[in-house]
Amino acid sequence: RLEEFLKKEVDLELSTRPEFEERVIDFSEVEELMNSINTIPAPCAPVINPQAPNAATGTSLRVCWGLFSDDTVECYQLCYKPVSNERRSDEQAEHTLKVKETYCTITNLLPNTQYEFWVSALNASGISPPSERAVYVTAPSPPIIKSKKIRSCENAALVCWESRDINPVDSYMVEL
């Protein structure tokens, strides 16, 4: 019987119904759902650290901050301006830097000057709210010793100096 069956020509063509041939499937809802799953939220506000000891020179400051969340961050936007007691403090030059790390050393600053810093985090979804503002202070300039006014005797010495700083210095340390 098998031999007889194999001698016959068999039509293996399958017929399809017309409704399946031109059917268009709308994936727009699925696409929206997939896009919403892959979207990362904008980061939360970073937390700026207070000034650390030995984090300043006369012309530079090292500013550090962190995040309390597991947000995805591409970079940070660090802003700063000098603090002024005058009413025009809002008109002071505001500087902005893009930083990849959670710290930055700012250079070319004025000695013995207060600077206000704040930072925001950025990713593909947007920018975070700014951190609280923190005030950092650069170190004072070294004083100028007035060598012509130095006097000494067997048990004492008189050393005079003057400050090069505009803002008052709290104290001086004299080393022998």
From TrEMBL:
Record's protein name: FSD2 protein
Source superkingdom: Eukaryota
Cross-referenced SMART domains: FN3 (SM00060)
Residue intervals of the Fibronectin type-III domain: 46-142
